[in-house]
Design a protein that fits this description.
Elements lengths: L3 E5 L5 E5 L6 H4 L18 H13 L36
Antiparallel strand pairs: 1-2
The chain binds iron/sulfur cluster (SF4).
């Protein structure tokens, strides 16, 4: 089982994190390689990423994306990959 540590998140709040994953959100998140992400503008940023950011702010979380049906960056096609059905929120804009 991974060791969990308690650290300051940089904003004066203490959070718990698996020690080996501390500070590695960008390295493991698909968003860091996706052209839909624009960290500089929430208006042109991916709508999914904006929702994730809202959750992060609301609960003090870090939420890297490990799987995403809307990823638009480079990828390697895998022959045995199976499609994933995702229901769309009718209030979301198409990106
Ligand atoms: S489409 Fe998916 S991978 Fe790309 S920025 Fe949005 S949430 Fe991240």
């Amino acid at each position: 089982m991974a060791k969990v540590i308690k650290v300051d998140n940089g904003n004066g709040t203490f959070v718990f994190v698996k020690k080996d994953l501390k500070g590695k959100e960008d390295g493991i998140s698909l968003c860091s390689q996706c052209p839909k992400r624009n960290k500089d503008s929430r208006y042109s940023n991916c709508h999914i990423s904006n929702k994730i950011y809202e959750l992060e702010m609301l609960f003090g979380l870090k939420l890297p994306v490990l799987e995403c049906p809307s990823y638009n960056g480079e990828f390697e096609d895998v022959a045995d990959a199976k499609p994933v059905q995702v229901e769309k929120d009718s209030t979301e804009e198409e990106v």
